[in-house]
Design a protein that fits this description.
It holds the Pfam family Aminotran_1_2. Belongs to the class-I pyridoxal-phosphate-dependent aminotransferase family. This is Aminotransferase. It is an enzyme of class 2 (transferase). The protein is α/β, with parallel strands linked by helices. The protein has a nine-stranded mixed β-sheet, sandwiched between helices. Helix 3 packs parallel to helix 4. The protein is globular, with a radius of gyration of 20 Å. About 10% of the residues have low confidence.
């Protein structure tokens, strides 16, 4: 794991704020991308792979469970439309989230997706040295840059299995951001290991957007009140297929919640989104979530087993994978990705994640039949690469 420091003014040199190259970055040794000439596009996300012609492609680029939201959730959202004349009232949804995690409502903040939470944290918290553990979802760093912060990167290494070493995080870091399970590596860090990052005076942000796709949510820190400065972010996008509705939440100490709430605009979460949040906290929903997580684990195992068959073609799988996606490395990945697209499959490029380069691709887990068709397409794409 190595540290690299972004010494820019936080405005970015790219065409979109926060997404520009890390000009003047200082690397302190070890493996990873970055430094002078770093061109990671922090604002590139999986939806870009399917935005223009997604209807013609099988989507393995976006980490949202297929065939969602379920009918009962769509019905609950539809019912909420009769209340659109009134301003949103988040009290019931907030209480439902609090009860689900065994917390008082003062420790819960509803947000327009986890992405809004990153913006609130970047704007509301007064931090001197923020550190983002990469590879991971890039919005935390982009939000921090946009807010004018200088950002240090901790790059986890492929040869170490992208595993966290808490001792490598600088002691003077007063904000540390890490994903669990991590997007795009699919690594599930032990909760106890992440908790070792906590320090007096430090805010520890754990992005658990994909934790509900892990059976039993093992290694979650949601609901913990014994870890100093802990902030847990959750999203309802992935399991329930609500990316277009924008709903997530923050679990944190009351004083942190109060700071974030002051930075939030009035009525930030819509009435339909609040209805969805409340519905997803019921015992029925949680049972369905657990069933879906176990189904994902079975389908992921099938995908990984198929990918291992391509080892002689240079395909390497980041294992063990614990999220609803798998990271693979292979020579000529960009060309393979383009050929897969011509064969009808969209996959996520990996080179926009700090710590990865253009030999990496991320694959969303799909059902067995879709995986089998993808593996056949991958066989053709790799064969064409080698001609």
């Amino acid at each position: 794991m190595h540290t690299e420091r972004d010494d820019r003014d936080g405005r970015g040199g790219h065409h979109r704020p926060g997404g520009g190259p890390g000009v003047g970055a200082r690397a302190t040794g070890g493996q990873g991308s970055g430094g002078l000439g770093d061109t990671h596009d922090l604002r590139h996300h999986g939806d870009a792979e399917v935005r223009d012609d997604g209807s013609a492609l099988v989507d393995l680029a976006v980490n949202v469970r297929a065939d969602t939201p379920p009918a009962w959730l769509r019905a609950r959202i539809a019912e909420s439309l009769t209340g659109l004349a009134a301003y949103p009232d988040g009290r019931a949804a907030r209480a439902a989230v609090a009860a689900r995690h065994g917390l008082p409502v003062e420790r819960v903040l509803l947000t327009a997706g986890a992405a809004e939470a990153f913006v609130l944290l970047a704007r509301a918290l007064k931090v001197r040295r923020p550190v983002v553990v990469h590879p991971q979802f890039t919005e935390p760093e982009a939000a921090l840059r946009d807010a004018g912060h200088t950002v240090d990167r901790m790059l986890l290494r492929a040869e170490d299995g992208f595993r966290l070493d808490p001792s490598a995080v600088p002691e003077d870091a007063d904000l540390v951001v890490i994903g669990n399970p991590t997007n795009p590596t699919s690594v599930l860090h032990p909760a106890a290991l992440i908790a070792e990052l906590a320090r007096p005076g430090r805010t520890l942000v754990v992005d658990e957007a994909f934790m509900d796709a892990v059976p039993d949510e093992r290694e979650t820190l949601a609901g913990r009140t014994d870890v100093p400065g802990l902030v847990v972010l959750r999203s309802l996008t992935k399991t329930w297929g609500l990316a277009g509705l924008r709903i997530g939440y923050v679990l944190a100490p009351p004083e942190t919640i109060a700071e974030l709430e002051r930075a939030q605009p009035l009525w930030p979460v819509s009435t339909p989104a609040l209805a969805a949040a409340e519905a997803c906290m019921t015992s029925r929903a949680l049972a369905e979530q657990e069933h879906a997580a176990r189904r994902v684990a079975i389908d992921r195992a099938h995908l990984v087993a198929g990918l291992r068959e391509f080892a002689s073609d240079g395909v390497r799988v980041a294992e063990p994978a614990e999220g609803p996606f798998v990271l693979i490395g292979l020579p000529g990945a960009a060309a393979v990705r383009a050929r897969l697209r011509r064969l009808g499959f969209a996959v996520r490029r990996g080179d926009t994640f700090p710590g990865l380069d253009d030999t990496w691709l991320r694959l969303a887990v799909r059902d067995r039949a879709t995986v089998n068709r993808f593996l056949q397409a991958l066989d053709q794409a790799v064969s064409l690469r080698d001609r």
